[in-house]
């Protein structure tokens, strides 16, 4: 791959050629894709890997002695190593391939159900995606444990001093996202992990929204569990990763029963396979896993420092331009943010703004962004969310600003 970088920023014109979808028009206008926080677009390099898989070595893995099965198994396990290296896990079997972030969270939550007892406590933050709230509510109902919420402030940051107050010897696990998908807030996870460990609590970090922008080092963070989805970082849907410390993965019971996760089966007793297979029941998303590895290779070739620097430029520019429009209110103005802007215009419904800008070819998200408690905090039904990736440009932000102005004119 020949991706040139000029100083810190990325060579965006060259990168855009890797994404065929960016050439298309929507409603007669060039597509401006600003819904990257929901899912990212896929570069040709990753699509080529998918086509190669089905064209040349499609087979079930870990089972056959035949050559195709061997080839598929080798590529799948190589992808696991790529993921291991990317997140700097100590051992490759600490990486469980999942169907995505939601799957990873449910796997851990359901495992904890058997470890929790009446009176235990679980802490989640007020900034969570529904996929971080609902599984834990279900587990609390089953186990009698209590769910407590770390509050947020007006700027969209969690209140650290309240976290310290809520954390006690009863706390078994702390659960929060690395980056909020609704607001883009980057949470001080290292500080939270260290503090939680001082009281003996485990920490699960939802990295779905952080992983496309920040390279997390699970050993340096000393995190117990870290989850992410491939489709938010240039990979396909239906595949993701769960990192778990070996000691924790050994302690948790299997999530699903089936083929691939067993060592021996009789009707009297089944013994489970070693890690990571204990948590990988059934035929996995083989092609997806291999493509996930290719997506990480693609992004690493550009460089995460370069990506972050460029996206911060876009964020700064878009924020300044948007605030020039009268009546615009931003939600989530934390000091540390990824390239997400959540906003409303006084007197207008976010859905109406989203509909008009779509007519002009611009894809943004409107609504509660699967984070209803945040919307309740601000007492709003939802926001318009524009989220930028390293393949977006300042020119696209200009089109977006013009479209928002037009929407405001039409709706006022
Ligand atoms: C997208 C997202 C999820 C859910 O990810 P899936 O890929 O839909 O499982 C969870 N948490 C956050 C912060 C997200 O951004």
Automatic annotation (TrEMBL):
CDD domains linked to this entry: SufS_like
Catalyses which reaction(s): (sulfur carrier)-H + L-cysteine = (sulfur carrier)-SH + L-alanine
Entry keyword annotation includes Ligase: no
Broad EC category: transferase
Domain Aminotransferase class V: 32-400
UniProt-listed Enzyme Commission number(s): 2.8.1.7
Record keywords: Pyridoxal phosphate, Transferase
Signal peptide span: none
One Pfam family named in its UniProt record: Aminotran_5
InterPro entries: Aminotrans_V_dom, Aminotrans_V_PyrdxlP_BS, Cys_dSase_SufS, Cysteine_dSase, PyrdxlP-dep_Trfase, PyrdxlP-dep_Trfase_major, PyrdxlP-dep_Trfase_small
GO molecular function: cysteine desulfurase activity
Cofactor: pyridoxal 5'-phosphate
Keyword presence, Transferase: yes
Function: Catalyzes the removal of elemental sulfur and selenium atoms from L-cysteine, L-cystine, L-selenocysteine, and L-selenocystine to produce L-alanine.
Family: Belongs to the class-V pyridoxal-phosphate-dependent aminotransferase family. Csd subfamily.
Name of the molecule in the record: Cysteine desulfurase
Organism for this UniProt entry: Autumnicola musiva
């Amino acid at each position: 791959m020949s991706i040139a970088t000029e100083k810190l920023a990325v060579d965006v014109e060259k990168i855009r050629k890797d994404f065929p979808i960016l050439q298309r028009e929507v409603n007669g206008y060039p597509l401006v894709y600003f819904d990257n926080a929901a899912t990212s677009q896929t570069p040709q390099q990753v699509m080529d890997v998918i086509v190669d898989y089905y064209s040349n070595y499609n087979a079930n893995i870990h089972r056959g002695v035949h050559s195709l099965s061997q080839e598929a198994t080798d590529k799948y396990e190589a992808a696991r190593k790529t993921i291991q290296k990317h997140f700097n896990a100590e051992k490759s079997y600490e990486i469980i391939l999942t169907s995505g972030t939601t799957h990873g969270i449910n796997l851990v939550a359901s495992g904890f159900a058997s470890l929790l007892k009446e009176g235990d406590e679980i802490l989640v933050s007020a900034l969570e995606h529904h996929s971080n709230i609902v599984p834990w509510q279900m587990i609390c109902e089953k186990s009698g444990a209590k769910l407590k919420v770390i509050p947020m402030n007006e700027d969209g940051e969690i209140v650290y001093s309240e976290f310290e107050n809520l954390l006690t010897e009863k706390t078994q696990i702390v659960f929060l996202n690395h980056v909020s998908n609704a607001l883009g807030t980057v949470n001080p996870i290292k500080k939270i992990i260290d503090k939680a460990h001082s009281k003996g609590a485990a920490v699960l970090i939802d990295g779905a929204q952080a992983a496309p922008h920040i390279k997390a080092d699970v050993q340096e963070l000393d995190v117990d569990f870290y989850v992410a989805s491939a489709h938010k970082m240039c990979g396909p849907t239906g595949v993701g990763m769960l990192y778990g410390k070996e000691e924790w993965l050994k302690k948790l019971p299997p999530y699903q029963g089936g083929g691939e996760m067993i060592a021996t089966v009789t009707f009297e007793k089944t013994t489970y396979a070693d890690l990571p297979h204990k948590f990988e029941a059934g035929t996995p998303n083989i092609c997806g896993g291999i493509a996930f590895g290719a997506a990480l290779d693609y992004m690493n070739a550009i460089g995460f420092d370069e990506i972050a620097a460029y996206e911060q430029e876009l964020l700064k520019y878009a924020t300044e331009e948007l605030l020039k429009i009268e009546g615009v209110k931003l939600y989530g103005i934390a000091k540390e943010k990824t390239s997400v802007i959540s906003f409303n215009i006084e007197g207008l419904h976010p859905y109406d703004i989203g509909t008009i800008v779509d007519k002009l070819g611009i894809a943004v998200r409107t609504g509660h962004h699967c984070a209803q408690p945040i919307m309740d905090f601000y007492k709003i039904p939802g926001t318009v969310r524009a989220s930028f990736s390293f393949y977006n440009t300042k020119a696209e932000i200009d089109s977006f600003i013009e479209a928002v102005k037009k929407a405001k004119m039409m709706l006022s």
